[in-house]
Amino acid sequence: MTTLSGAEILIECWKKEGVEVIFGYPGAATIDIHHHLATSSLKFVLCRHEQAAVHAAEGYSRSTGRPGVVLVTSGPGATNTVTGLAGANMDSVPVIVFSGQVSRMLIGNDAFQEVDIVGVTRGITKHNYLVFSTQELAQTIKEAFYVATSGRPGSVLVDLPKDVLSGRTEFIYPKKVFLRSYQPHLTPHPKQVSKVVSLLKKAKRPVIYAGGGVIAAGAGENLLTLAELLAIPVTATLMGLGGFPGTHPLFLGMLGMHGIYRANMAVQKADLILAVGARFDDRVTGLLTQFAKEADIIHIDVDTTSIHKNLEVDVPLVADARQALTAILEGLGPAPDYQKDSRAQWRELIEEWNRICPLAYEPGTDVDGLIKPQRVIEALYKATHGKAVIVTDVGQHQMWAAQYYLYDQPRQFITSGGLGVMGFGLPAALGVLVARPEATVINIAGDGSILMNIQELATCAQEGLPVKVAILNNGALGMVRQWQDLFYGRRYAATTLGPGPDFSQLAAAFGIKGLVARTEAETEAIISEALADPGPVIMDFKVSPRENVFPMVPAGRAIDEMILRPLELP
Amino acid sequence: MELGTENAKRHTLAVLVDNRPGVLARVSALISGRGYNIDSLSVAETMDPDVSLITLITTGTPRIISQIIKQLRKLINVVKVTDLAEVDHVERQLVMVRVKAVEPNRAEIMRLAQIFRATIIDVSLKTYTLEITGGQEKIRAALALLAEFGVEEQVSTGLTAISKGTMAPKNPKTIT
Lengths: 570, 176
Prior knowledge:
The complex is a heterodimer. Chain A is about 35% helix and about 15% strand. Chain A has 22 helices and 20 strands. The model of chain A has no long low-confidence stretch (mean pLDDT about 95).
């Protein structure tokens, strides 16, 4: 009988699962794996922090739909993955972290670099495993990939004791997984589908509310067909952007706390909401008791727990979004002339809202001659013809990127939605480039967020990954400061960053190009220069600290109670 | 507004789980992590050695209970969740109680034990220790009476439950 070591089995399993790239950071507990990985056909991307390695794997996965794989050592290596695991799980991203662990006989002894990472990550992963023997390694890995990628995808951690990796056994990779306790429900119930169809036929003021599930399920085309067939306007969540073409005449823009006026108004006045792969998050619904009060609500989601969690809905449909939409389209048949006149009036009303309050900002520079941040997003949109993959961090710049850049393709907008992880952008962007080397990838960042994983410039430089980082530099933690502006009497507690580092010199220190724009004219110039450069580039835009994100629904208010423009401040 | 407890009711959930290390931790962490309460919990192997039964008593509005059930079902190691409030079932709990037993009360305590079909499992000159098994009402009644004599110490298992046979008559009087 030929046997392999646990470390070799792990690598063989990765190959069987079609893994091509692993992100991570080595350590004593995983040195055996790296020893074999170095001579295998798999690529290892050495990030400079384990948190960043998970975000890079997220970027890889979010931009392709394939699982992202991470390898870290025990103890601190494992604990540094916590934020990434939690964020990936909240945003339904299939990421699998393999962590080293001390040998089985040392577990529980407070050994060097020992931590109970399975205990730590229990509540923030979809599932996790501690592998007890070399014999069950292959089966566990097969299960881990299956759990991470099926149903509502999520993050999984597999903890690998060092002696399990050095033990030897025959390698048999199971062909199938059967878990009696886990069988995702993907096919829509015909009775629920027919209820949906009859509501869709009747509705006079329908709106589709599309979430990240549309993208995860690859349901974009079906959604487009349905919306066009019935002439239904579509709004999307932050995670849903790109699931429906951003430049389509039926697209209303994002809804929610920083939603576009017409999108929020349409939801509030609709008589039917078709929620697809969305979960009625508090940033979307605002005050729940006032949310879409006039509407019947249909909720399509693959995750049963999402149904009736935040909002009691009228017709739940537990299914994969693509399968559900396919069944609905079949049920509707070819004659779509439903409520034609009322729906034309409805779209006219929505356009009227847009005329009253379009997405806009005061053009020109601010009183100090500083660039408007929204202007930078518009310039990036123009320069890339709307075709770049935009990866953001978290804060004001993220919302402007969601509002002012229009995404026509799924997986074109990569952002940390549910958990809102600052420092996500740069490593995620490098992960996107590993998956899609031909793409133009722009990390739109704030001067706060970028410093949270700035060390990844070293990874970009070493791997030759041409991430273009656009820092909207306003010298402040803008989103918190915006709340202070509006609701906390302008006491800017702990939100002022001051002049901060010189980002172009910082770039130079990492051996990459750094550019600065202080005026509007320089904006376009440095963008063209950055895009023309074959390597990674940092663009430092000195933007106005006075700009805030509007519309804005104050916390705890209904989503049609928007603050539309800056308050007149003394 | 969800915190309103007007409609809150006690539910007994029978949770069948994979009999593996860490599964109980997953169940209890889920309940506490999402801010629900556990009133009582008991765990034991079932006839199938690969499966354990967690009997879990929790209180909540219909919406919270349904959310707890769905969240439990979402756990990879949970095989089946049954809300016994929807099924005819029998519940039992075991309590051991050491009660002061000095004259002239010793005979009276023994009579009470007889009435409640409790067993005296330890005797000293000044105490009796009783083992009482039953549904929550019976146990509550027995403990209230014993309290009159002075309870020194009392321990209890969690409640466990079993559904009734399908051929049982409608709403039969529960045999205690």
